[in-house]
Amino acid sequence: MYDMNRPEKAVSQTETKISARKVQVYYGDKHALKDVDVDILDKTVTAFIGPSGCGKSTFLRCINRMNDTIPIARVEGQILLDNEDVYDRRVDPVQLRAKVGMVFQKPNPFPKSIYDNVAYGPRIHGLARNRAELDGIVEKALRGAALWNEVKDRLSEPGTGLSGGQQQRLCIARAVATSPEVLLMDEPCSALDPIATAQVEELIEELRSQFSVVIVTHSMQQAARVSQKTAFFHLGNLVEYGDTDDIFTRPRDSRTEAYISGRIG
Amino acid sequence: MPLSWALFANFLLAAAGYIVGRSRAFATAGPDVRKLHSRPAYHGASVGLAALLPALAVLAAGAILRLAGVLSSDTGPIIGIVALIAAIAGLGFGVMRIGREYQARNVVEHMVLGLLMLCSLIAIVTTAGIVLSLVFETGHFFRVYDWKTFFFGTEWTPRFQGNSQLGIVPLLWGTMYVSAIALLVAVPIGLFAAVYMSEYASRRVRGFVKPAIEVLAGIPTIVYGLFALITVGPLLRDYFAQPLGLGNSGTSVLTAGLVMGIMLIPFVSSLSDDIINAVPQSLRDGALGLGSTPSETVRQVVLPAALPGIVGAVLLAASRAIGETMIVVLGAGAAAQMSLNPLEAMTTITVKIVSQLTGDSDFNSPETLVAFALGLTLFVITLALNVVALYIVRKYREQYE
Q1: Is A8 part of a structural domain of the chain?
Q2: What sequence ranges are listed for the domain ABC transmembrane type-1 (chain B) (predicted)?
Q3: Do the bridges between strand A229-234 and strand A212-216 make them parallel or antiparallel, or are there none, so unpaired?
Q4: Are B214 and B266 in contact (CB under 8 A)?
Q5: Whole-number Å distance between alpha carbons of B83 and A202
Q6: Does B33 contact chain A (CB < 8 Å)?
């Protein structure tokens, strides 16, 4: 099946992974997200910043259709993942979410062992044929999340017994284990102390080599540290999107400038 | 004067004491109410309680002494008058205490605390009293009957002439058999109904289905018993027992078990529903975000997380099944026998307690006293189940603190 001699497809940094056009989200009567157009690049860290309630998390949850789980939420417009509309009738959200992993604001390890937490995704998607293969996947994911050395001797202990920072890295390992193409992170460091935050940020930088990472953050310093692209949301609008360096040093929109200099937010 | 009139008069006096105390406090304060340590309402309440509590104490003491036979039964009026005098004295004392420095608020707080403690004490003492009377009568029973025959005897044939065989084993077997069938019906149905309501149903459906299921919990058990006797029993006999040659009894373990299972469905489903709802949404999001289907999420994440609580709910349902009487009386019959055939009539501990106490026999014969031994055995079983269930439920609660 695999043609080892196939010339590797030239992956430039500018290849578009996700392309959103005129995305609208309504929560009941509330128009939460208005006309969002954005192109998210492959193998890039994209940060969404903006004040609370600006719609950045809402947009993130549109990409893997997590908003489907909220009965009153309604999404319009187009979000293309590899040129395929994720809101197409034929797309199964379950398959989509296997391709688009997600890490949440609060660490949410399952009440299972560390091993079973990481093996959860591979098991439900049938990614391993035998125990040895599964062991390999788990170890690789835990190494990928920089957690292996800390937990390798206690894989059978409950994941809920780890510290907050370790729990969050366990959740990242759990998402990485299904080998997603995109990883969505919804304020992954907001419940962590500065040291754990630094570890997770370092991890994000490494994960970028494998897939596209989209991170929602409240911390502008974090956005500046980890991302190459930044999008600023305000009151449901995507105000400005561009290279992180440009957004933070030469914002074009007055609202962006006001936010990054701490005047609105 | 009967005691009830004395009680009524005391409440009137207390109300009067409240009004007097309050106006007296206003008068003491002068133009500036803030000069008082406590607000006038507290002064009023302190006077009212000062009138009420001594009188109530007198009445309670009088009632107990009369029950104990220390006082003769025609002393009612005297007790009433003593109580009234105590109330008036208390009222006078209360009014005298009112002053700017008097800390009426603290006094009232203490009295309220005492009242609350008294109420919980009454609940505990009553329970202890019931248990003690059971233990006492059971002791009586074991003095006239061999305990080994009671606990290990496999024959239950009470005779009013005496010389009865009173072995608990057939009754215990019937109890366990009926309860097991009931749980076999109630646990899957209740649990799956709870999963549907908490994980799948839209808010509108849930708003309709949940109360509809809980209506079942409001049906008196005697009505379930009638249903077992008139509908389910004959149905099982005509369509299962007789064609299959398994007996022709209108009452059977299966009948009682099925109907009791239906009775327990709302119990299991509403407890499990609460427990499943207590599983944090973040776990569901995590599982769905990894690409699980809703049923995989329920099976592999939500139910394992809720399992200890569900086990607790099942144990609570089991202790209700074991203690249930009316459905078994009408559904399972009264024949004390040990059989594996679920279509045969059997009986349970609760049914036999009823039938031993409703007979005409002498209250000191082992045939009657055995009811207390049965009751105590039942109490110990359900208590143990409840303790285990509550322990498990509590342990589960700590998990998500």
Answers
A1: no
A2: 172-389
A3: unpaired
A4: yes
A5: 81
A6: no
The answer to the question of residue A7 being in a domain is no
Please check whether residue A72 lies inside any domain of the structure. Answer: yes
Given a contact cutoff of 8 angstroms between Cβ atoms, the answer to whether A236 and A242 are in contact is: no
Pick the range with the lowest mean pLDDT from A238-252, B76-90, B174-188, B256-270.
B76-90
Asked whether the beta carbons of B69 and B112 are under 8 A apart, the reply is no
**Contacts B200 to A, Cβ<8 Å:** none
- The CATH number of the domain where A179 resides is what? 3.40.50.300
Query: Regarding beta strands A16-27 and A73-81, do their DSSP bridges make them parallel or antiparallel, or are they unpaired?
Result: antiparallel
The answer to whether the CB atoms of B289 and A96 lie below 8 A apart is: no
Take residue A180 and report the two structure tokens written for it.
């997603």
Domains of chain B (ranges plus CATH)? 3-136 (no CATH), 156-399 (1.10.3720.10)
Those residues with Cβ within 8 angstroms of residue A159's Cβ, 6 or more apart along the chain or in another chain: A109, A110, A111, A112, A113, A114, A116, A117, A167, A170
Whether residue B398 is predicted with pLDDT greater than 60 in this model: the reply is no
Domain of residue A20: give its range. 16-260
CB contact under 8 A, A108 and B285: yes
Q: What is the Cα–Cα distance from B107 to B84, expressed in whole angstroms? A: 22
**Number of domains present in the structure of chain A:** 1
* A265 lies in some domain: no
CA atoms within 13 A on the CB side of B121: 6
**Which two tokens mark A173?**
């390992």
Q: What is the mean pLDDT of chain A?
A: 89
Q: Which amino acid is at B214?
A: E
